[in-house]
Design goal:
With about 260 residues, this protein is mainly α. The protein folds into 2 domains: about 60 residues, no CATH class; about 140 residues, Serine Threonine Protein Phosphatase 5, Tetratricopeptide repeat (Alpha Horseshoe). About 70% of the residues lie in helices and about 0% in strands. The N and C termini lie far apart (about 55 Å).
Length: about 260
């Protein structure tokens, strides 16, 4: 049974990474329908991968924050106590001004457009975090990913459009192609094109969880908070979605 389970775990990975050809995909679907315990194992496998990806993102943030752990407060010479006291009062003054500024902005805003807080949530999905298939040989695709990783979003979109001329490749990689195209358009504030790309990805695609998240962010950046709320609530309703916590935070911001 262990060998059988290991075989299917590898097969599940190939399915989630988009490596299965149409015949293999149909064969797996037949097996899932015939074996309920296998379907349950696939669900657990999907949840485990979602948890790993979510942990990976938090781990990266922790590593970034840890870079500042060794930076302690600067030492003041013992004969300059007034400088330290003045610095404390200056910091308190800045804190009060910042609080007043935030209060003013919150009271001034009559809409729920949260473009400014949204910046903290908008992080580009990297090739490593989104189950990138390293075996692909499409030159335009690889060039597009390189431009994308360099934040050359317009150039990346040009390559991605060329990729679409290869119908077989575009179909096999529709999730990743439309995810990256959508994020590029989101970064360029081409909101309608981003939404169109994200909506092209079917719900049973392995990339749909990430597409859902960036679709919500696009609606928010465009100011369509009603549509954003629907997508964010759909994310929150999923027990294993890797952005469930952040989706809850955004829903609270919209309601404020």
């Amino acid at each position: 049974m262990n060998k059988d389970l290991e075989y299917y775990k590898n097969k599940f990975d190939d399915y989630l990474d988009g490596h299965l050809n149409p015949e293999q995909l149909e064969e797996l679907k037949t097996e899932l329908n015939a074996r309920p315990n296998l379907s349950a194992e696939l669900e657990r496998h999907v949840q485990a991968r979602a948890a790993i990806r979510a942990f990976g993102e938090h781990d990266q943030k922790d590593k970034f924050n840890s870079m500042f752990d060794d930076i302690g407060p600067s030492e003041n010479p013992p004969n300059q106590p007034k400088t330290k006291s003045a610095l404390i009062w200056a910091l308190l003054g800045v804190a009060v001004l910042a609080a007043l500024f935030l209060f003013y902005n919150n009271s001034k805003s009559t809409s729920t457009n949260i473009n400014k807080p949204l910046i903290a949530y908008l992080e580009d999905p990297s090739a490593n975090l989104t189950r990138q298939n390293a075996k692909v040989s499409n030159g335009d695709w690889l060039a597009g990913l390189e431009a994308y990783n360099n934040q050359s979003y317009s150039q990346a979109l040009e390559y991605f459009e060329k990729v679409r001329t290869d119908e077989a490749f575009a179909t096999d990689n529709t999730g990743q192609l439309n995810l990256y195209s959508g994020v590029c358009n989101l970064r360029l504030e081409n909101h309608d094109k981003a939404i169109e790309a994200f909506k092209t990805v079917p719900t049973n695609n392995p990339m749909f969880d990430e597409v859902q998240w960036y679709l919500a962010l696009t609606y928010l950046q465009k100011g369509e908070n009603k549509n954003a709320t629907l997508v964010l609530q759909a994310i929150v309703d999923q027990s294993s979605h890797f952005k469930k916590g952040e989706a809850k935070e955004l829903l609270l911001r919209i309601k404020e």
